[in-house]
Design brief:
- By secondary structure, the chain is of the alpha+beta class.
- The protein has helices at about 1-40, 60-65, 210-215, 225, 245-250, 270-275, 285-295, 320-325; strands spanning about 45, 50, 70-75, 80, 85, 110-115, 140-145, 155-160, 165-175, 180-185, 220, 235-240, 260, 265-270, 300-305, 305-310, 315-320, 330-335, 335-340, 350-355, 360-365, 385-390, 390-400, 410-420.
- Strands 7-6-3-2-8-9-10 form a seven-stranded mixed beta sheet.
- The protein is elongated.
């Protein structure tokens, strides 16, 4: 009986400690929210940042160098409790990938910036995700060791001592020491965790003070880079709005002229299948499409549903909204966009052409006549598109070839291809600059 009373007493004490800790944390978060509400501005200018401790995760570094256009981020090398060195944290769902480990570091600070795989300071183990848009395929995260930081703004910390004394994170000008903003923090150690994204334009997600260093970093912008071209390793992601809704195009289906096309059975290798139907997923296709742009007139090429323009360093998509995502397929080609209606109960097969600025150029009704279906009993949809020579080729996805089935060498799938010579299509502005 005494043991039961003792166990109950210990349990009561632990529960009370947990409650005390939770109340303490909530009080810190509420103080942070109140302090944030009193800040005179929600954005702060910074060309570079030094972080006194490994308090940021890969996502924030990723965004600071790309979306916020900082020239570099310097990080004081931190000692891990379990041994080893760290300059940052993996994102919340990527702990199996040890991003931020820096046992190679011999100096007090590491300067992170964008460069190429050929640069001496390239760290491939830190650059797994830095070769996809908005980065050029040869991008690498450079990690240059320095003894003293040179950034314009400093992110500093006073660790909390739970559950007695609150801590804080603050932003300060390095040159003058002037405090730009300070928020209370419950972070006990000199580091952080988690991969919460910095906000993008139009993001109205609520304030989250559980990691107040992220709230502060979220305020930083490089105003110089916002008014001129950024790093040569970056490409700006641009969205254009169509000047007519897809619902209106569908509602006027009977007005559009008819275009007769014929489909032929085609066999695709695995790489061809990826290039047509999954061309925005893998790094290989991104690298191939950038190469195509470099070699094409006007330095313009397709990247699946988006358009690469290397002269303007842009990657443009047509915003067809939820309706477009569910009922239409979008394919970039010939310096603009083709939008094909998915097969529906009405049986309409519409193909709309928008220029690179979102202006509708024309719509045609596709009459495929007798189609050699690549999957018996299923109506076809133009899920893929490529340009071959002066032809626009639309593809129905078809099916995977089964083991033992007769096939050409290296064939992975059988599809239906609809080849349309450009001269049969209505005029398109800028054609044939983009493939």
């Amino acid at each position: 009986m005494r043991r039961l009373f003792a166990a109950a007493a210990v349990g009561s004490v632990l529960a009370g400690c947990a409650q005390t800790s939770n109340d303490w944390r909530r009080a810190v978060w509420q103080a942070c929210e109140a302090e944030h509400a009193q800040l005179p501005t929600r954005t702060m200018a910074a060309t570079s940042l030094v972080v006194e401790g490994a308090g940021l995760a890969e996502t924030q570094v990723f965004q600071l160098l790309s979306e916020r256009h900082l020239e570099y981020v310097e990080v004081r090398v931190a000692q891990k409790a379990e041994g080893g060195k760290r300059i940052g944290w993996p994102d919340c769902c990527r702990f199996s990938w040890p991003w931020g480990d820096a046992n190679w570091a011999t100096q007090a600070y590491v300067r992170l910036s964008l460069g190429k795989v050929s640069d001496a300071a390239c760290r491939p183990e830190l650059s797994e995700r830095w070769k996809a848009p908005p980065f050029m395929p040869d991008t690498c995260l450079l990690a240059e060791e320095v003894t003293q930081p040179s950034a314009s703004v400093r992110l500093d910390q006073k660790p909390a001592t739970s559950p007695r004394e609150w801590g804080w994170w603050r932003l300060a000008e390095v040159e003058t020491g002037r405090v730009l903003a300070q928020l209370s923090s419950d972070t006990v150690r000199g580091d952080g965790a988690g991969g919460r994204r910095l906000k993008r334009d139009g993001d109205t997600s609520p304030l989250d003070c559980r990691n107040s260093q992220y709230v502060l970093v979220d305020m930083l912008r490089n105003p110089v880079q916002e008014t001129r071209a950024g790093s040569p390793q970056l490409i700006s992601e641009v969205t254009v709005q169509p000047n007519i809704s897809l619902a209106e195009i569908q509602g006027r289906a009977n007005e559009w002229p008819k275009l007769d096309v014929s489909g032929q059975v085609a066999y695709l290798s695995e790489e061809q299948d990826w290039g047509i139907f999954g061309s925005e997923i893998r790094l290989q296709e991104w690298a191939a499409h950038v190469k195509n742009a470099k070699e094409s007139p006007g330095r313009i090429a397709r990247h699946g549903s988006r358009l690469i323009d290397l002269n303007n360093a842009t990657l443009t998509r047509l915003n067809t909204g939820t309706e477009g995502h569910l009922k239409w397929w979008t394919h970039a080609a010939f310096n603009g966009f083709f939008v094909a209606k998915r097969e529906g109960p009405d049986g309409e097969r519409l193909l709309a052409r928008f220029d690179r600025n979102g202006k509708l150029e024309w719509v045609v009704r596709i009459d495929a006549g007798s189609v050699p279906l690549s999957r018996a009993g299923r109506a076809f949809e133009f899920q893929g598109a490529i340009v071959e020579g002066e032809d626009l080729v639309l593809y129905d996805r078809g099916r995977t070839i089964q083991p033992g089935e007769t096939r050409p060498p290296n064939a992975k799938s059988v599809v239906t291809a609809f080849r349309i010579p450009v001269k049969r299509l209505p005029p398109m502005e800028g054609q044939p600059l983009a493939r």
